[in-house]
Every structure is written in C-alpha cells, then in structure tokens.
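Quick one, T. Sequence first:
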Amino acid sequence: MNTLEKLAATIEARKGADPSSSWTAKLLSKGPEKCAEKFGEEAIEAIIEAIKDDKAALTSEAADVLYHLLVMLAVRDVALSDVLAELDRREGTSGIDEKASR
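Structure tokens:
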C-alpha cells in the first residue's frame, strides 16, 4: 500500500468519527461543498507557490492539495482506486486524443 492509498484509507476511516476528535472528520461532517471549497483554496495556494518558484512551499502545498482531493473524493464516495483505474485506462493515450474523445 503506497502513501496515497494509506492516506485515503485513513480518510475513509474518519467518516462518521467525532468531528471534535479529527480535522478530517470535522471537514467531512461539513459536507461536499465545504470539502470542495477547501480543495479549491489549497489548489490556489499551490498555484501561487508554483508561480513564486518556491519548491519547498510548493511541495507543502502539493501535499495539502492531495490530502484535500482525497477528502473531496471520500465525501462523494469516489474511491482512489477508481481514479487510479481511470489513469491506467488513459495511459498510452495522447492527452490531445483523450480530450477529443470526451
């Protein structure tokens, strides 16, 4: 099990936990809209650090983006394995071709 899979499993385990005992449980308890909002905030912060060319800050923000993406997926019951399967399906396909097929 890789780091993202472990994190996804931890997030899944926090569903239904006491929101006062876990940041993840607190975030999940606020629903999909709040989880999506937090993901968006973190994505913007990562963009800012990428523009500033601060590798350490971008690394930290990228970790936040991945965490909040997994929370957003979990609140909508989308499994990381399904996302990874979609990436596997796209492997070897030109991004231009893949986008044209949508």
